[in-house]
Design brief:
By secondary structure, this protein is of the alpha/beta class. The protein has 15 helices and 16 strands. This is methylmalonate-semialdehyde dehydrogenase (CoA acylating).
């Protein structure tokens, strides 16, 4: 396919399809799938169908793996300095088209343009890291570890590797995966989230423009069936996954049973502990940014604040700062929060908020009824704060993955333990 200079998927394929269809990348060619099943890619702010992504057929998947397997012998023998030069060109092209990539991320995922640019930039940093792979690939040599025995280690590529990506960082997480893998001499099968496929296709186009040979990087699309195919295929030697606990445990168990190496970055429930002597302004700013940035849709989002002492002293400040955040479509320059990814995600977040209320939590800021003028059908949720949360509540146990901050308290006993851990002097009962 002729280089399109990073048109969005809808621009790339509007001549052939309405709505536009996202292609697979197999053996160096962007190919329309023969699948009879396509999934709508929906702009979460407008509900507009941006494009359609195929459920890749079994034959297409096997062709992608075959292309990666065929490309591996020559790619692994390519001098590492040459592989590095591809990455050097790749990072240059990402910088050139960062604004287009960010706009695609905002269109498909909903996050603000500022967040989307950060998404691309953090992935770019990994590409820059891969540019120094020659040093990172150095082995070790130790002479005379025993009488007449020297030892040495060498680092060799595994072969065909695969990456399975989530929706929340459409550029960064694919860039966590394939640049390092291919620079080490592996070939790669990338499966983007079916909700946000466009950035991966655009990045693949850039990688090929940078000089990545045919078959070294391949892209397939789909849901459960394609994930299982990746887990089961004997020619795929390693899998990298980022996503939910349920999916990660399934992938780890199924792929490990086939003898594959698996790394799985799954869900989280992140806590911040706030001591009574914390700086109020600095702490509140940090809590609001960590809790509501990216609409809470990141595994490192702060979901729970543990106050040592009375949380009510902090509530008014948190509510004041959270209310000042602007909820809007991500392309608006003043937007602080965009929509969540889907109507189903919005409904789940609403349900978890309500379960907290029904379990006895106090709803000190409710963002469920927010309406963005002109985007009434968008999946918007405003900053929400629940106080008096306890560890037995569903909202505490579950990863909410939305702009919801939970406040809870611990008292003197935990304060004593904290001081003991920190090596502080004994404190009196009045502290």
């Amino acid at each position: 396919m002729a280089n399109s200079h990073l048109s969005t998927p809808s621009e790339l394929f509007s001549r052939q399809h309405k709505p536009p269809r996202v292609p697979n990348l197999i053996g160096g060619s962007f190919l329309d799938s023969k699948s009879l099943t396509f999934i709508d890619v929906i702009n979460p702010a407008t509900q507009e169908v941006v494009s359609q992504v195929p459920c890749t057929t079994d034959e297409e998947f096997k062709a992608a793996v075959s292309a990666a397997k065929k490309a591996f012998p020559s790619w692994r023998k390519t001098p590492i300095t040459k592989r590095q030069r591809v990455m050097l060109k790749f990072q240059e092209l990402i910088r050139r088209d960062m604004d287009k990539l960010a706009l695609n991320v905002t269109t498909e995922q909903g996050k603000t343009l500022k967040d989307a640019q950060g998404d691309v930039f953090r992935g770019l940093e990994v590409v820059e890291h891969a540019c120094g792979m020659a040093t990172l690939q150095m082995g070790e040599y130790v002479s005379d570890v025993s009488s007449g025995i020297d030892t040495y280690s060498i680092r060799e590529p595994l072969g065909v590797c695969a990456g399975i990506c989530p929706f929340n960082f459409p550029a960064m997480i694919p860039l966590w995966m394939f640049p390092v893998a291919v620079t080490c001499g592996n070939t790669f099968i990338l499966k983007p989230s079916e909700k946000v496929p466009g950035a991966s296709v655009m990045l693949a186009e850039l990688a090929m423009e940078a000089g990545l040979p045919e078959g070294v990087l391949n892209i397939v699309h789909g849901t459960h069936d394609i994930v299982n195919a990746i887990c089961d295929d004997d020619d795929i030697k390693a899998i990298s996954f980022v996503g939910s606990n349920v999916a990660g445990m399934h992938i780890y168990a199924r792929a490990a049973a086939k003898g594959k190496r698996v790394q799985a970055n799954m869900g989280a429930k992140n806590h911040a502990v706030v001591m009574p002597d914390a700086s109020v302004d600095a702490t509140v700013n940090a809590l609001v940014a960590a809790g509501f940035g990216a609409a809470g849709q990141r595994c490192m989002a702060l979901s729970t604040v543990v106050f040592v002492g009375d949380s009510k002293l902090w509530e008014s400040k948190l509510v004041e700062h959270a209310k000042a955040l602007k909820v809007n479509v991500g392309t608006e320059p003043d937007a602080d929060l965009g929509p969540v990814i889907s109507k189903q995600a919005k409904e789940r977040i609403h349900r978890l908020i309500q379960s907290g209320v029904e379990s006895g939590a106090r709803l000190v800021l409710d963002g469920r009824n927010i309406v963005v003028p002109g985007y009434e059908s968008g999946n918007f949720i405003g900053p929400t704060i629940l106080s008096d949360v306890t560890a037995n509540m569903e909202c505490y146990k579950e990863e909410i993955f939305g702009p919801v901050l939970l406040l809870t308290e611990v008292w003197k006993r935990c304060f004593y333990i904290y001081h003991i851990w920190c090596g502080c002097k004994e404190i009196s009962d009045r502290d």
